[in-house]
Structures are given as C-alpha cells and as structure tokens.
Amino acid sequence: MPLSALKILTANHLRTGDVLYWQGTRWVETLAQANVFADDAAAETALAKSQKSVTANQVVTPYLFEVRQGKDGLQPIKEREIIRSLGPSVRTDTGKQAEHVQI
Fold it and tell me: What gap in Å lies between CA 19 and CA 27, rounded to an integer?
C-alpha cells in the first residue's frame, strides 16, 4: 500500500479573502500552525468538518493540498499554494511577504 501524501486543509476567509488553514476545530492564518494530515481518512474528515464554517458564512471553498517536509519545515508542493501561503503577489510591501515569512 503506498503512503499517503501529507496534506493541509485551506480556505479563504469570506469577508477579507485572507488565506486560512485548519487547526483542529478552527482556522488560523499561517501554514506553520496548520494541522498536517498523513492519513487520507483524517484529511477527509477534517474537510467534512470544515463545511460548518462554509454554512456559517465564515470561509469559502475549503480544500486539501499536498505539502512536503523540507529543511525549513513544511512546504507546499504546488506553486499556487506557495503563492497563497506568502500573501498577495501584486505588491511585496503588503501581506505576509512584507513580514518576511519564509516557507
């Protein structure tokens, strides 16, 4: 049986558009705080639980994405998630990239 890829659950805050990550029973703003799922069933359970936040008009479009363990911690595999984790890409003086967050 092949190993499952590591996954993190993400969504966007409905009012601000900020990228959020799932941590237990709540949403957090940084990738480093997110729960990491090595088990597909646990990841799917978290995704199902996150639907309460959609129903409550707190977040939109929760989904799972793959990460890998790098020398500096967890890193998204796909370019889209790398960009989302750093903040808006239009100006480097705003968002998470202005805070010099490294992934």
Answer: 9
